Predict the structure.
Amino acid sequence: MNLPQPEQLLSNMASQLTEYLKQMRIQQPRFVGIQTGGVWVSKALLKKLNRENEALGVLNVSFYRDDFSRTGLHPQVSPSQLPFDIEDQHIILIDDVLMSGRTIRAAMNELFDYGRPASITLVSLLDINARELPISPDIVGATIDLPDNQRIKVRGPAPLSLELKTLAH
């Protein structure tokens, strides 16, 4: 399978997001990346948007995952950092790969612990189309259908690259 090039995906996403913000009349969005790949995508996207000097929030959703009791805590969990108020803000939530939707659900739960945003816009580099929850991106680089035994790993931070992995059964 030929994977798309992250640079082209980011350019498309920047165009889509610029148009979306204009249509929605959002003047001052607040950008939040989900640790780790979502933060990499956020930084690359902010650069494409010429907004690389804007504050970037970082969410680590490990404690909010619904599979936390099964998988345990990764040894390198760092705390979330939101350098701005969430209350009544338009949040641009960014992740690298949207698959089941569970990471996004966890991220939204955490965001609401900080306050009530005016809106949340979901941006994802890739949508793997393997949804378990009714969550879809508003802005997406590409949608890809994969067999159950394959995953895409985003490598970074810069430059971003995509790696196709086949899971052992």
Observations:
- The two ends are 20 Å apart (CA to CA).
- The chain has a mean pLDDT of 91.
